Amino acid sequence: MNDLHDAPGAADTTLPAKAPPALTTLHARLNSLLGGAARAWLDRALDEAAAHPGTHGPVSVWELRIAEAGRRCGPEYAEAARVLLLYAARADAPTLARVYRQGTADERRAVLEALPHLVTGPEALPVVEDALRTNDTRLVAAAVGPYAARHLDAHNWRHAVLKCLFTGVPVDAVADLPDRARGDAELARMLGDYAAERTAADRPVPHDLHRVLALTGHPATPTGTDAPGDPTSPDGVHGTEGKES
Question: What's the gap between Cα 89 and its chain centre?
């Protein structure tokens, strides 16, 4: 959705009242970029979702619209459209989990992007944890967004940061990284262990590792006894065999 943040705004007419400002802006910018047919389809789909939110039968109409978004809006704008549809449908944590479980990788990413706008508590963490078990870098990047920053505990959040380093996801994707990393001596130790392991294997140490280490304010102190290795290890939120999307 990055391109949408740089696009000019347009009037918002179909999102529910009291929508978060970020989503109101997203909808306005999406409208300014879509062609007439795509914009009309999105307006109808959002109206449908707002009029018939929640779950109705095996598959709700708005869920079908989520599946159609790529064809109707184009792949570059489908994720934003799906996030807006999820919000208009007022999807709760169980509904989001179902849409995620049954969706394509692109639809799963939209669920992850929608989480901070729809779920206030930790009940959607299983969705985040599942995404972090994959090696799909787009899912990992979405999983470490604002929802994870609010609700992942320290242990699992540290392993999520290591997962980014291991898979090559830029740490800029990690929401609230400076605040959560500040003063974290355990994260510094884990980074030191990972760097030592890479160096011993004659492999390059990711530049982002040094960035995160600097944020902790602690020097690296590898112990040699609990090196993180593959951050998909079972002691974090990740399993050794990640579910691929």
Answer: 19
- Alpha carbon 191 to chain centroid distance? 23
pTM: 0.84
Kindly give the residue spans of alpha helices, DSSP state H, lying in 89-243.
93-102, 105-118, 125-133, 137-143, 146-151, 154-167, 177-181, 185-200, 207-216
Tokens 């619209």 sit on residue: 65
CA distances from 175 to 52, 152, 172, 179, 211 (A): 32, 11, 7, 9, 15
CA dist 33 and 37 (Å) reads 12
pLDDT tens, 64-114? 999 999 999 999 999 999 999 999 999 999 999 999 999 999 999 999 999
Specify the 3-state DSSP secondary structure of 238: coil
Report domain extents, the chain.
Answer: 1-124, 139-240
